[in-house]
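step=encode ok
step=design start
structure_in=
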């Protein structure tokens, strides 16, 4: 006979299941866990002393408090004959997949030839995930009408059809990875926002992945993709949804007018959409917002050509040749938020300490004139040049890469410089945590420390990268980390890993058969509320949406050969 629940147990379970709501109110998760442990531990000890079956005692005696409490509640409910059939918000109409036909859809917010992180890194991710025969991969990228392409893409590059742009993307990729990647590229309608300098999806992005392929979704920038998402709930359509957070939006927003208020609102909206649309979230570094369901892990690698450059430079040094013939440089988009303010402040404050130090700066951007004027006004020894590819031959000879930015989440240029065997000087900041294990990464805490690191780097030679360090920077290692931290390995191998103990199986069966999950109920409610609000054009405009992006427009229909949105939505469910 299963002993009945007492009041502390009920209170402990109530606090545990209220975690998402308390999190929204700012109550830390560790405080909730301590309350649950305090309420339940006394009752747990009493149960262990009672004449329970050996099986149940062992279950209660092992594992976390949360798991034990779940099993305790489930066992009581099961003893009454109750079976939980699913929540009010749950959609059970998912396609079933066997082990030999798994599908991964990677959805991102930008595409080449726009050389931004959310265009480049998901492309590499798709290529390296497609190397495994366990899954088929689709990369879903935004299609811009010609007027928007002219605003976004460099060197006046435009495309008349998705097929033409796909050809450009594949050629660019294959020149860099050295193998033919077997994955599908699809397009969804997008519109460019001049104010936000970003692409906003138009219509329901999820409908561009057919239901028969809706298995695993990887949402690159999940908050960005879902701010104005008005369509199928990702976690209803897909079996496993992983978000990857690329951008520290709060840091950028705080620099704007009324930035503190805007950042407060965006922080809670981000929490809202993450809870509503993701099962798991990976943050590239701790510099990002602490989102629900998230863990920190760098799941990006560097373009393989930078590792090849590093190997070439290492070989030259082994032969006694002088590989580094130039001093220090900085490379990045020329906007104040990308580290230029910090750079100018550091050099201005220590102009006397760094007398004779010259820094070459490569970059283009909206703030170029202001940045260069400020440097001239302060009489700083900065040599400004046009932006160029970091792998350009003219940059190979530099020994020191300086990056004082604290707005980045994980600076790609820093990883590239390390891969090429250079010294990197960067701030002691969460965004640089991954790089600290490399001996050529010199971090500083104060402006005086910055001066010392510059002098140290200029006076010494970088350490050659070991094979282990090169691997750590590679996309092969990044893909391995991604598979582990996203729990994709478990999802893809769940049939093969069926050799769990009978006790563990009974725990899972008991919990799933008997227990409602209030977290899922709350997340479903948040998704429903978000769907209702984003369906109202007035509310969308009030929160900064581009007019007319609830559905795609006639030009998108023409370019992508789409049916009108109303017909497309009904067909997507088939």
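sequence_out=
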């Amino acid at each position: 006979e299963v002993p009945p629940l007492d009041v502390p147990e009920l209170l402990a379970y109530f606090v545990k299941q209220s975690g998402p709501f308390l999190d929204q109110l700012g109550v830390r998760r560790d405080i909730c866990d301590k309350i649950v442990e305090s309420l339940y531990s006394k009752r747990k000890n009493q149960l262990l002393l009672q004449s329970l079956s050996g099986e149940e005692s062992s279950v209660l005696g092992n594992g976390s408090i949360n798991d034990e409490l779940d099993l305790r509640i489930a066992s009581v409910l099961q003893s009454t004959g109750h079976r939980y059939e699913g929540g009010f918000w749950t959609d059970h109409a998912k396609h079933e997949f066997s082990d030999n036909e798994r599908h991964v859809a990677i959805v991102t917010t930008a595409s080449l030839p726009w050389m931004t992180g959310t265009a480049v890194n998901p492309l590499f991710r798709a290529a390296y995930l497609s190397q495994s025969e366990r899954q088929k991969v689709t990369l879903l990228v935004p299609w811009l009408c010609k007027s928007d392409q002219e605003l976004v893409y460099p060197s006046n590059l435009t495309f008349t059809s998705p097929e033409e742009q796909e050809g450009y993307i594949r050629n660019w990729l294959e020149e860099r990875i050295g193998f033919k990647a077997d994955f599908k590229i699809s397009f969804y309608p997008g519109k460019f926002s001049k104010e936000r300098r970003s692409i906003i999806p138009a219509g329901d992005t999820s409908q561009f992945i057919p239901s028969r392929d809706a298995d695993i979704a990887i949402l690159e920038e999940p908050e960005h993709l879902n701010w104005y998402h008005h369509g199928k709930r990702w976690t209803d359509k897909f079996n496993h949804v992983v978000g990857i957070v690329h951008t520290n939006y709060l840091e950028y927003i705080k620099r704007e007018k009324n930035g503190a208020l805007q950042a407060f609102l965006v922080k809670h909206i981000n929490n809202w959409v993450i809870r509503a649309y993701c099962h798991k979230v990976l943050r590239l570094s701790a510099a990002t917002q602490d989102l629900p369901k998230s863990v920190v892990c760098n799941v990006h690698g560097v373009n393989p050509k930078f590792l090849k450059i590093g190997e070439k430079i290492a070989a030259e040094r082994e032969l006694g040749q002088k590989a580094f013939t130039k001093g220090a440089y900085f490379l990045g988009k020329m906007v104040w938020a990308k580290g230029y303010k910090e750079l100018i402040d550091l050099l201005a404050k220590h102009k006397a300490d760094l007398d004779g130090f010259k820094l070459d700066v490569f970059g283009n951007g909206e703030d170029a004139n202001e940045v260069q004027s400020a440097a001239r006004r302060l009489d700083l020894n900065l040599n400004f040049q046009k932006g160029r590819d970091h792998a350009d031959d003219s940059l190979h000879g530099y020994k020191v890469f300086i990056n004082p930015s604290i707005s980045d989440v994980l600076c790609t240029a820093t990883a590239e410089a390390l891969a090429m065997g250079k010294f990197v000087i960067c701030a002691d900041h969460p965004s640089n945590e991954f790089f600290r294990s490399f001996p050529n990464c010199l971090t500083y805490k104060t402006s005086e420390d910055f001066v010392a690191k510059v002098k140290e780097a200029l006076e010494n030679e970088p350490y050659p990268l070991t094979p282990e360090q090169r691997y750590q920077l590679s996309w092969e290692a990044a893909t391995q980390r991604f598979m582990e931290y996203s729990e994709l390995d478990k999802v893809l191998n769940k049939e093969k890993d069926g050799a769990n103990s009978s006790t563990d199986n009974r725990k899972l069966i008991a919990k799933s058969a008997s227990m409602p999950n209030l977290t899922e109920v709350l997340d479903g409610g948040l998704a429903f509320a978000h769907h209702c609000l984003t369906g109202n054009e007035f509310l969308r405009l009030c929160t900064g949406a581009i007019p007319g992006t609830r559905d795609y427009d006639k030009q998108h229909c023409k370019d992508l050969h789409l049916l009108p949105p109303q017909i497309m939505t009904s067909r997507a469910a088939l």
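step=design ok
step=annotate ok -> Residues 51-63, 498-514 have pLDDT under 50 and may be disordered.
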